Each structure stands twice: as C-alpha cells, then as structure tokens.
C-alpha cells in the first residue's frame, strides 16, 4: 500500500446534543463512498456513542469484548512502567500500536474506499473504572504520553486519507488532546443558545491561542428549527458575529475580518433539525437523498466539501433497496440487543462477493505485514522440514556405518572359514575333521545371517 498523508479532523462541541457524532458518521460515509480510506476514533471516553451509529456493521455491536482507546493508553502505560531487566530486551520495544485496536466495518464500498473504527474501549463492567482512574497528567508528564500519541498520529496519517475524531464535550484533558494536539483542522458544533455559542467560542479562542492564527476552525450551527424564525435569525446573526474571527481563512481577502465574505459559508453548513433522527442513531446517508436542500445529509455534504478543500461534495449513494434495509436495521425492537442483519436476503451472492472484496482490501492495506508473516511461516516450515531431513540423513549415515562394520566382520569370518577349510583338508583323523567341519559350518551360518541383515530391504 502506498504511503498516505492523512488529515486529522476533530469534531467538537461544547455541549452535548448538537448532532456532532451524527455528522461525523455521515462525513465518514461520504468520504468513503468517494474512494477514501477513513478511520474513526471515539475519543469521547466519558460518554462513548459513535459505535451506536455503526451498530449494524460491527461484529461486536455492543463492544463487550472489543478493546479500544482507553485500553490502548492503559497498555502503553503498563509497558512504559515495566523496567527493562538486565540482559533482556527492553519492554519499551513492545509498545502497543493503535493500529492493533482498529476494527473494520462490514460494508462494501465497491473496492473504492473503506471505514475503520477505533472504539472508546471494551464496554464491560470495568470500563467506567478504567476511564475514571486513568491519570492523564502522569501519562503526559512522566510516561511521555505526548510523544507516544504523536508517534501514533504519524503512523495513522500514513495509513488513512482522513482520521475523524469524535471529541469529548466541554473542557477536559481528553478534549484538549483532541482539539489541540491531534487535529489538522477543527469542526466546532453548537446549537442556538447562549451556553452553547459562548462556550464553543471560548474553547475555539483558547485553541487558536495555542495552535496559532492559521489553524483552521469551522463553526457549525446545528438543530436549526423552522419555528420561531425571528428568534432563530437573531441568534444566528449573533453567532456569526461571535465566530467571525475564526473564519478569516475562508475569505478571499484575509487582510481583515469581513462577515460579508463569510455569509455563503454559513448558508452551506447550517444543519436543520429533523425529529426523525431524535429516536435512533441511523446515519442520514441511508435515509436522505444526496443534495436535497434542507436535509441533514445535504449540510453534511457541504461540511465535507469544506474539510476536503472542495474535493468531495456529494455522497455516492447505494441502491434504494439496500438503504431501506439498513434503515430498518436501526429500528428499535423488543429484542434490541440482538444484532439485525441489514443485507437483503435475496442478495446473498452479492454479500459473499462483497465479503471477498473487503478481505482483498484488508490484504492490500496490510500487504507488507502479511508478506512478512508469510515469509516467516515459510521459513519456519522450511527449517522444520530441513531438520527432519537432516535427522533422517544422520540416521542413515549411522546405519551405513553399522552395516560397513558388520560387512567387515563378515569378510573376516569368511577369511577364517577359507583358512579352516584348507586346514580341514589336511586332517586325517575323522573325529577331528568332523569337528573342524562343524566349526566351519557355524561360521558360514554366521556370515549368511549377517549378510541377510545387511541387505537393502533390511536396512534404512
């Protein structure tokens, strides 16, 4: 696989309920449908929920046995605190990689793009304890966590086109990692009320102070109602003024802040409220029509256009039958914990074919890793076969040496027989001659027995 130069994009909101995670899922699907390899990271450790939007496509929908980000940092901290024993290789060489915590989605993008996922962590009875007891200050200050995450960032950047991070809300250690250290650009989602607007603007100002004036920030208003238009328009006007200093990078003339040049941006990214999406975590890519104005998907397509420098501006949709099957898989049922199969039953061959294609993509993505493993297995098998043959050769050599020794002894006995036979011919006494002949017969028998033992059929 060729080395990529992936872009890290963080989806952040000061308050919950802004549709941030929904937008991330939609943007991921839009990108992947256009041929890009996308990685999603659920960094909202305190309230993970990204996996809910991916539920029908995960082998372990509830993540009950799937490790993730919090498990990675715990594993890394344990390895870092393990002393290197004298004479042994340092434990630091066995550092875990975030790549080991990636899971794939069971979806066919027709051999174009892909979506991979790093969950927040294994959702078992100890998850909350692992999150609440992890010391991020110690991880950064004493264990070199900043350098570790930077190294992982470089690895992921080389393997994916876009890495989308679902950040923790508010102000916290983990949200700062997502908004300051990791991203190349930041999306700030907010709803139309004071606490959401002012909180998001304050965080954006703090990030800009740490990352510099050139760091791109995109404020995104969400859950915009059609009702109460006067109040809505007044709050939108206020939000545009508050966030205007962060949008100079989208202006043609960036010498000074000009709200007029930013007006088209606000019209494109404003996300409407759709009550349908208030009940189930179904991505809009499966329900809305691409480009349909006034829909959630259309605003997310325009967001996608901004973060890709206008390279991607529309979803490449699936067949309507397949989309309907996926939407149905998200519907609440009495047996909601049972995984629902979203594939149309009549399309079993296409499902099998898609599974083969997904396997091919995974093999191509990890070509060097699989080639190394294959070469290692080949070398091991070859070495074992060589040792078996070497052992057989050693045994054959030993048998040959024994046969040669017995052959030499047989020759010696045969010589003795010939000598005894010549002496027997000169003996006149019948008793002595009979004894001599008996001894000769015994020696001849011994030679015959040894000769039979050394025949090819009786030796290895």
Number of helices: 15
> What CATH architecture label of the largest domain applies?
3-Layer(aba) Sandwich
Number of domain modules? 2
Q: Which stretches are poorly predicted, pLDDT < 50 over at least 5 residues?
A: 84-93, 344-351
Account of the protein in words:
- By secondary structure, the chain is an alpha/beta fold.
- Helix 1 (20-33) packs across helix 11 and helix 14 (367-425) runs antiparallel to helix 15 (430-453).
- The chain has helices at residues 20-33, 50-53, 69-81, 127-133, 136-141, 145-159, 173-181, 194-211, 229-243, 259-269, 296-307, 320-329, 348-365, 367-425, 430-453, and strands spanning 7-13, 37-42, 103-104, 114-118, 162-166, 185-190, 217-221.
- The chain is built from 15 helices and seven strands.
- The protein is 51% helix and 8% strand.
What's a concise summary of this model?
The protein is an alpha/beta fold and 460 residues long. It has helices at 20-33, 50-53, 69-81, 127-133, 136-141, 145-159, 173-181, 194-211, 229-243, 259-269, 296-307, 320-329, 348-365, 367-425, 430-453, and strands at 7-13, 37-42, 103-104, 114-118, 162-166, 185-190, 217-221. Helix content is 51%, strand content 8%.
């Amino acid at each position: 696989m060729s080395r990529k130069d992936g872009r890290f994009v963080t989806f952040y909101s000061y308050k919950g309920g802004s549709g941030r995670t929904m937008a991330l899922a939609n943007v991921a699907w839009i990108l992947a449908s256009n041929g890009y390899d996308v990685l999603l990271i659920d960094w909202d450790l305190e309230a993970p929920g990204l996996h809910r939007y991916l539920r029908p496509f995960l082998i372990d929908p509830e993540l009950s046995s799937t490790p993730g980000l919090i498990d990675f940092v715990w594993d890394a901290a344990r390895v870092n605190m393990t002393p290197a024993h004298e004479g042994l290789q340092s434990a630091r060489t066995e550092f875990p990689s975030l790549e080991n915590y990636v899971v794939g989605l069971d979806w066919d993008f027709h051999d174009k793009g892909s979506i991979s996922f790093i969950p927040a962590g294994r959702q078992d009875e100890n998850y909350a304890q692992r999150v609440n007891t992890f010391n991020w200050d110690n991880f950064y200050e004493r264990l070199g966590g900043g350098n570790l995450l930077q190294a992982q960032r470089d690895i992921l950047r080389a393997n994916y086109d876009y890495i989308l991070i679902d950040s923790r809300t508010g102000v916290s250690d983990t949200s700062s990692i997502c908004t300051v250290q990791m991203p190349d650009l930041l999306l700030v989602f907010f709803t139309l009320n004071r606490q959401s607007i002012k909180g998001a603007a304050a965080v954006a100002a703090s990030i800009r102070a740490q990352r510099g004036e050139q760091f791109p920030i995109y404020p995104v208003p969400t859950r915009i109602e059609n009702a109460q238009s006067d109040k809505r328009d007044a709050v939108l006007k206020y939000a545009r003024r508050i966030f205007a200093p962060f949008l100079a990078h989208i202006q043609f003339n960036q010498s000074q802040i000009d709200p007029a040049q930013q007006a088209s941006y606000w019209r494109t990214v404003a996300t409407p409220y759709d009550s349908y999406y208030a009940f189930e975590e179904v991505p809009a890519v499966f329900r809305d029509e691409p480009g349909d104005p006034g829909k959630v998907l259309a605003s997310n397509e325009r967001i996608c256009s901004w973060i890709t420098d206008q390279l991607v501006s529309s979803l490449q949709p699936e067949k309507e039958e397949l989309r309907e099957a996926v939407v149905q898989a998200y519907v609440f049922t009495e047996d909601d914990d049972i995984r629902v199969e979203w594939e149309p039953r009549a399309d079993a061959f296409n499902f099998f074919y898609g599974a083969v294609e997904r396997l091919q993509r995974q093999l191509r993505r990890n070509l060097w890793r699989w080639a190394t493993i294959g070469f290692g297995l080949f070398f091991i098998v070859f070495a074992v076969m060589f040792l078996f043959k070497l052992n057989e050769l050693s045994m054959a050599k030993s048998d040959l040496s024994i046969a040669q020794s017995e052959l030499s002894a047989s020759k010696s006995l045969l010589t003795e027989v010939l000598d005894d036979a010549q002496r027997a011919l000169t003996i006149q006494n019948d008793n002595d001659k009979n004894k001599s002949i008996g001894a000769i017969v015994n020696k001849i028998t011994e030679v015959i027995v040894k000769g039979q033992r050394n025949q090819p059929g009786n030796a290895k």
